Hints:
Layout: H1 11-26, H2 32-39, H3 43-55, E1 59-62, E2 67-70, H4 72-102, E3 105-112, E4 115-122, E5 137-139, H5 144-150, H6 154-158, H7 176-189, E6 192-195, E7 202-210, E8 216-225, H8 231-253
Helix pairs in contact: 1-3, 2-3, 4-8
Amino acid sequence: MDKLEGDYMVQPVVKALQVLDYVARQGHMVTLTEIVHELKLPKTTVFRYLQTLSATGFLAHDVWHDRYGVGANFRELARVDNDLSGLRELAQPEMRQLVATFNETVNLAILDDSDIVYIDMLEPARPLRASARIGLRHPAHSTSLGKAMLAFLPEVVDRLPGGELEQMTIKTLTEVSKLRRQAEDVRRRGYAVEVGENEDGLMCIGVPILDRAGHPVAAMSMSAPERRMRPERTSEAAEALKVAASRISQQLAA
């Protein structure tokens, strides 16, 4: 791990990550002495980091041999990253084709609790005033991406907090009962539309990407200024998105 500097760096965290990084790169379990010798850190400091990382599941401690290796949580993060990389690899050709056809932004996102997280995004040459960026989170109920996935996860909709949902704009749908009714329409037609619910003046059309069990593993959307999306263009984009998502789903199932 490269040396890091900066006023906002938390040095104990940096050192703990150095320990994690060293153990993960060895490919076999290692001892406290080996880590101390390699990283040139105090033995008591390394011991505390190892105990903390083991307690949180990022490392595993073989008590009998007193050795440390990667833990279940570390492996799960690696699996998730691998899955997301595979999903992006399958989706990108379809996303590029959609951008080329419609000259609008195409997004890819996953659901995390009651939020969506953008994991990929392709933008056309012309500018688009949008706040979304890779890694950014938005409430699922205010986005077409989220609505497309929630429509196939009624149990998640039922777990949404009572009362009004977070309002992103004056147009945001904030009542869970209305979101449930909207989800039925999304399931029937296969895509979701939101106009100015997440960002003023912006329209998005979202479709789910389903696994072989019909579970939404992700969603893909097209974003454009509302003024550019006439009814016929919206219909064309929705159908193109559905076809693209279906092809991605088939490849995932394969």
